[in-house]
Amino acid sequence: MTVCRPTRVSIIGAGNVGSTLAQRIAEKNLADVVLLDVLEGRPQGIALDLMEARGIERHDREIVGTNNYADTVNSDVVVITAGIPRKPGMSREDLLKINAKIVLDVTRQVVIYSPGTVLIVVTNPLDVMTYLAWQASGLPPAQVMGMAGILDSARFQTFIAMESGLSTADVKATVLGSHGDLMVPLPRYSTVNGVPITELMDAPTIDRLIERTRNGGAEIVELMKTGSAYFAPASAACLMVEAVLLNQSRLLPVAAHLQGEYGLEDIFIGVPCRLGCTGVEEVLQLSLTDAERTALQASARSVRDSINQAQTLLETSPSPIAS
């Protein structure tokens, strides 16, 4: 008798993003879920709570909570959410040293048990952490990606819909670049039912929406005081997981490894990509204006500087330990 192995997604980090993502994946019936955290009891408790909801939500997916990386074996996708969250007044760069150590350690351990996995990084600073995870994993670059492009585009989409009073279902937004203050929203490629927003809104309004998008995460941090966004980040990560597991060939903005595209070399940064079962299957190169290309290059320089800073910090620090 042939025994079929169920599709498995492991989520490293049982904080708000990780636990919400586990719920999304299970309730969409995408895969069995392994939720791992270093805090004993937390992932087990969350997993049991989600399992007890199965009869209500009408799915039969297994959700396992664990502190042991061996339980993540043979994961089709691994999502890294582990790390400390951004706090009020803290920039993404402030997170660099602590989260770099965590992400490196996590990555090295998960690839021992799932050497062929597709790796999705959610931990901030996103673009830098994705690059470091790729270096630590030894995986082909197409199998490693960062989440934030979908989140940033969703925020721009939301603000366009709120401003125009039109349904978000008709709004498509495009954001390139790093997940931070230098992200590059593209109004020319952001539309309402196919009509560019440049034909629907004046320049000052668009500039205001762009600025709000760039500060979307910080705005939530300031409102929540003691936390950061997790519903939308979890939804964004789930969309990527779904595209990979179901081999959907979705065109989605993710932090992908570039080797010459957009004039950028050896860097992970947000660009539109075709996602399928092997990961990033193609990078779509949009035609950019001089101003847009200059903004994207400035965003990339900032990411490169942070990568160099992180590597310097790691060279002078003790061996990383996940926390």
How are the elements arranged and paired?
Blueprint: E1 8-12, H1 16-27, E2 32-36, H2 42-52, H3 54-57, E3 63-66, E4 77-80, H4 96-113, E5 118-121, H5 126-137, E6 144-146, H6 148-164, E7 171-172, E8 175-176, E9 184-185, E10 191-192, E11 195-196, H7 203-214, H8 216-224, H9 231-245, E12 250-259, E13 265-276, E14 279-283, H10 290-315
Parallel strand pairs: 1-2, 1-4, 2-3, 4-5, 5-6
Antiparallel strand pairs: 7-10, 8-9, 10-11, 12-13, 13-14
Assembly type of the shown chains? Answer: single chain
Instruction: Give the helix level as a range of percent.
Output: 40-55%
Overall body shape:
globular
Given helix and strand content, the structural type is alpha/beta
Indicate the radius of gyration in whole angstroms.
19 Å
- Distance between the amino and carboxyl termini: 42 Å
Low-confidence stretches: 319-323
Mean pLDDT: 94
Q: What's the helix-strand series?
A: EHEHHEEHEHEHEEEEEHHHEEEH
Beta-strand share of residues: 15-25%
The total strand number stands at 14
What is the tally of helical segments? 10
Let me know the largest β-sheet.
6 strands, parallel
Strand order of the largest sheet: 3-2-1-4-5-6
